[in-house]
Amino acid sequence: MPIEIEILPDADAVAERGASFVAGQAATAVAARGGFTLAVSGGRTPWAMVAHLAGRMPWERIAVFQVDERVAPDDDPDRNLTHLLRSLPVGADVHAMPVGAPDLDAAAATYAAELPGVFDLVHLGLGPDGHTASLVPGDPVLDVTDRDVALTRRYQGRRRMTLTYRVLNRARRVLWLVTGEDKADALRRLRAGDRSIPAGRVSPDGALILADRAAAAASR
Q: Which fold has domain 4-216?
């Protein structure tokens, strides 16, 4: 089954629609199960989306996790966490990936133990090379099937800690935010179910793509 897609005018519209979708999913989960678990990737559009959620979520019932993180010092501008915390309300329950730990493999196992059995919602982005989370082309992390959290090789100057397909494909819903004309080819391949790109190996079940016109124009 093809992934559902909505095409919005621009990145700001994608962020606002994403916030509306997340808030709706949170309300449903809280009503049904008493809480909501959300995993968030990095990027300007998702950080804008999270900022739009400030007054629209029952934050005392919500746990926020990271999909991936660069191995870098605390407060480093390369860290997704640095920007995520600026977007979230003070006091939000954020489970940060422990990328500053001396033993990263042990830290990944510790983080995996914190994860919910099933995420209510996972947000993913899409790179021009077809990567998502920190599941990047050619990295052995793509073939990890026995762990929920793993480490990558160096990619764009940093090693990464990332959720694996095993976690992503258990999620109740997946929300893709895709903006920019440089994503058009990767988006076309994602929509076609092309498993030769890392993003294409994420299950389409329960997934929604929100894309701006620049990304979607050449992807149909």
A: Rossmann fold (3.40.50)
